[in-house]
Amino acid sequence: MPHTVGYAPxxxxxxxxxHLNILRHxxxxxxxxxxxxxSDETATGMKGRPPVIPLVERLEIVRxxxxxxAAFVDTSHDKLEMWRRVRFDVIxxxxxxxxxxxxxxxxAAMATVDVEVVYFPYTVxxxxxxxxxxxxxxxxxTPGGAPVIRSAEx
Length: 154
Description:
Residues 7-133 form the Cytidyltransferase-like domain. The chain is of the alpha/beta class.
C-alpha cells in the first residue's frame, strides 16, 4: 500500500484558523504530513518584512498541531530543493497561488518530479497580513509621536 507524504510550507506567522484549516485538510489527503516553517530570512525576502513571531516559536506552534507529523525550517524559495530533502508526493498551498506566476512556476517544477500540487481555499476573512495590518494600526503613532495603544474597551 502506498505511503503518501504531504508537504505544507508556510510562514505560519500569527497562527490563525486559515493555517489550521490548511494543515487539517492537508493531513486528510496524505498519510504523513510534513510542515515547512519558512525561515525569518526567507520570509523577509518574500514579504518585505520579518515575521512578528520568531522562527523558533512558529516552529514549536506548528509542531504542536496534531495534524502535523513533522515540522522543520524551510530555508528555500525553491521547492525542488525542499523536495530533495523531504521527498514528498504532494504539496499543499492556499488557492491564492492558483493561476498566478508563482503558482504556475510551482506546478511546473513539481511536475518534473511527479509531485501533485493541491490548492485549498484561502481563508479570506483571516490572514496574517490582515492581522499584522491591524497590529500596525493599533500601534500607529499619534501626531505627537507616541503610539496609540487601544484597549479592548475602546
